Amino acid sequence: MSPHSQHSRHSEHSAPTPVAVVFPGQGSQKLGMGKDFYEKYPESRRVFEEASDACGLDLADICFGDEASLALTEFQQPAILTVEIAMLEAMKAHHGFHPRLFAGHSLGEYTALVAAGVYSLADAVRIVRLRGKLMQQTVPAGAGAMTAIIHRDLDIAALTRFVARFEVDVANHNALDQAVISGLEQPVAAAVGALREDEAWRKLKTIPLRVSAPFHSRHMWPIQEPLRAALANASAINAWAAISVASNTTGTFHVGSRDELEKALVKQVTSTVRWVQNMRDLLERTEEVVEVGPGRPLRGFFASLGVEISSIRDTASAI
């Protein structure tokens, strides 16, 4: 269903519901992502050019043909953000797509902040390139692990308490039935083993994730200060516009303060991505949610709430 088709559910006297846009983060990348938009729309090409100049990378080359670089967190983060903004700008220019609410999953929160006009594209790609580089350097390759925990009656508070005994953290609360735990390889394995043996978790399913570091865990704390400095150095920021952007850290919307925004983004790297709460808060404000990105991982998370969302490609019949 396209976002515009849902207006038919409202009477002619009802105020139109605002459109919300959501952006996936790492894990959504794929070789060739954004190439169709790049080739079709000048607005998308300009986004790639501006972002590449800002962060010192040929992002079109990385996205369309450099599989080795696209596998590295340092390059994945600016590449994904650039593709998402490139898609969004084309839709705004050619399809009358003008969202008023914004949210993103992990890295996607930075895309949401650019889309809302909080950060410039140039500042954001520089920040996330550094963020990705620091994340990769903090823990040696292969030392970290993340595992998805799937349980029909998932109690996120109980899971958090259980894995904390192993110095493992809940990185993401993605859906009513899914969370992700994060930490060093052996403690994560021990926590998963203990969960499987516990009667309360006997219907548990687990999926090891292919990741390069234990994201959103206590092991990311060394990057907080350099990330704080990078955020403070942003040259152009409209913090008030952040009131339309959901915060992964708090689960609610940002409050419009630059200081609080930067605190939340710094804390985000070590704390749980409260995506279930983000989804609920969005759905309290709108019925129209569109996912913008190279893949569609977020639709499954919304489906756990009984909600079907649209994809950006559902609105772009010309593609």
Short descriptors:
319 residues; alpha/beta; Malonyl-Coenzyme A Acyl Carrier Protein, domain 2; Alpha-Beta Plaits; 4-stranded parallel beta sheet; 4-stranded antiparallel beta sheet; 13 helices; 44% helix; disordered N terminus
Q: Compute the gyration radius: what is it?
A: 19 Å
Can you count the helices? 13
CATH architecture of the largest domain: 3-Layer(aba) Sandwich
What's the helix-strand series?
Answer: EHHHHHEHHEHEEHEHHHEHE
Can you tell me the overall shape?
globular
Write out the strand line-up for the largest beta sheet, numbering strands in chain order: 2-1-7-8
Domain tally: 2
Secondary-structure content class: alpha/beta
Mean pLDDT: 92
CATH superfamily of the largest domain: Malonyl-Coenzyme A Acyl Carrier Protein, domain 2
Q: Unreliable stretches, pLDDT < 50, 5 or more residues? A: 1-13
The percent range for helix content is: 40-55%
What is the terminal-to-terminal distance? 16 Å
Strand content: 5-15%
The CATH class of the largest domain, by name, is Alpha Beta
Largest sheet data: 4 strands, parallel
CATH topology of the largest domain: Malonyl-Coenzyme A Acyl Carrier Protein, domain 2
Number of strands: 8
